[in-house]
Amino acid sequence: MAGFVVFIFMILFVSSVTACDRCVHRSKAAFFYNDSPLSSGACGYGSLALNLNRGFLAAGVSKLYNDGAGCGACFQIRCKDNYLCSKAGTKVILTDLNTNNKNDFVLSNRAFKAMANPGKDLDVEKLGINDVEYKRIPCDYKGQNLAIRVDESSHNPGYLAIKILYQGGQTEIVAINVAQVGSPNWTFMSRNHGIVWDTSRAPNGPLQFRFVVTSGYDGKNIWAKNVLPADWKPGVIYDTKVQITDIAQEACSPCDDDTQWK
Fold it and tell me: Which intervals hold domain Expansin-like CBD (predicted)?
């Protein structure tokens, strides 16, 4: 029990160090001419990525990717040219790692052009690389529950790999445990990469999950009961029947009042 408390403390400490996600940051953004790289990105969404957020997707640098914990995070991005670009900018979901540190984001073509004022989308596209400012925002899936997709590499019984979909709010899942429904014996799952978690010791029978979720300097456990049936199948998406909607609890002064964004 003491080890678990220390583990949670370490999680919250790391989260507090990286707090103030909603502060405004300034960098550059480029775009993909076609979206195929984003369907094979480092987060592990695969072709599922192209159906997220109407295709408004982004690859982020390592500080945003955060060893995979940043996958699924949502950002509002707007370019600095007031003549070409709107104040609303574009809203994207992080689905890939950008290894080019000259710009914080590489956006899908659709998301990049969405920064434009009406009729200026092609002019914005011609820029290629754009000066931008951005901040993290909560993800909103319009009431969609958190879902688990069993990866095709899984085999029942024994090895279970899952992908986390529709993670709402402004949060990070930092640990997942799985147990047979009704059992107190939890098995720790490891982050394989991005949104993919796995274990080679998956319990038999219908399965429940426990997620350790952080948001800013705050964190909590979320239980999802009776998620996978005993005969779970690879490639199938299962509804957890829970929603994650937490907003990051941050001490971000002086940017708490959002004046830098206006």
Answer: 158-240
